[in-house]
């Protein structure tokens, strides 16, 4: 508390001091000219545009996230680069478009690390600028060099990419290995019960969701029928490591404890925490105290749980006097999905809740709901509460934060400096953006969305989501047509041509 206050006072005194001086001809240099607030990125998994109160949800209550939105900037055109997890996280951490890297697709739990250790990353940038850097939560960017022994040090991973501290789950909650990894080592591993992981074949004698449905407490709908952990059938096979296996219902509390501990340990220095929550990705496993909390089934319950977790985390910042000195960015890695492979009543109990907020598509889709997500910037006493329509993307955090430290980001050209928009000082964000969904790309520019023709099914019937595939170009005015119902490609041939040219230039075609 004291330290935070002191810091704040010091900054205020300095600011007053500076403003009394005659206008400096040259930029102030040295320690105090550059601001170094703590930076926290709270990143949700599969949370849709309409899944929180501040973005229009009425059936689902998210008071803590809403407080961030009401006291900060609520962006209406905030984007993940992609409609799935790995590529969005790749872009967030590297500032590079994920379609430049063919490995940036949904990864199995055994995939090697897809970020080069000599590549620029957000944590490296912050480290260079005096920050301690940590990640707590979901990783899903691969680990190791392709030959990981889960019983030894697992590297390279986050700690080789600029994170001083990492406490992660390797891939997704529905993929093996179902263990936490603490700075490159499986947490709580009993050396007498080694872990083996395979995405190719089962280990002899190990039950699977496919062959042993009687051992499952959650039923699989598609995929998710391999190794069973805690009664939940997963993607991939795993053997051993019994003591290290996570308890799904405790995951939210467990990550919260780690995030709080991180803040407490590093409150005396500028810190960057990438807090990547696992909700509401499948399997949706609310702690018993949240079961039934939303009335919308487990998907709603884990969103309520995540909101509670965020509230507790904010309390911890507040308790330590850090609110005025912490820049918080809240967003999601991709849009919503209801049935993503388990029977968990997400569809049946949805009622009138609209996870997409009326946008078309969802997770996996090139339509807006795939990538347009809640995006909130909160910095108490610093950022004016407002709603901003500026187009902002997670890809831009790298160049924007670099600008905050007067650091050059020319090594990361895809990332744009939109710091004034992110701090609410300008309503101009990016001019355009290439969005990506399962390897396909599309263009957002101004009020327009352009989707090039793609072969393939119009709808993924397993998840019941429109993917955006069509034989012809699709052009939508998303300002006037929020739900992308009217293809204007034939009505505005010149606009169509203009956007095709922009798209092809950006894609290097
Ligand atoms: C899909 C899984 C889905 C989810 C997704 C990754 C099947 C049939 N579906 O392959 O359940 O795990 O991958 O989601 O296995 S993401 O948010 O991490 O991108
Ligand atoms: Ca996701």
TrEMBL record:
* SUPFAM superfamilies the record matches: Alkaline phosphatase-like
Q: Name one GO molecular function term.
A: hydrolase activity
- Superkingdom of this protein's organism: Bacteria
Pfam families for this protein: Sulfatase
- Residue ranges of the Sulfatase N-terminal domain? 37-405
The chain's coiled-coil residues are none
Under PROSITE patterns, the record lists: PROKAR_LIPOPROTEIN (PS51257), SULFATASE_1 (PS00523), SULFATASE_2 (PS00149)
InterPro entries the UniProt entry points to: Alkaline_phosphatase_core_sf (IPR017850), GAG_Ulvan_Degrading_Sulfatases (IPR052701), Sulfatase_CS (IPR024607), Sulfatase_N (IPR000917)
Keywords recorded for this protein, A-Z: Hydrolase
PANTHER family named in the record: ARYLSULPHATASE A, SULFATASE
Family label = Belongs to the sulfatase family.
Protein name per its UniProtKB record: Arylsulfatase A
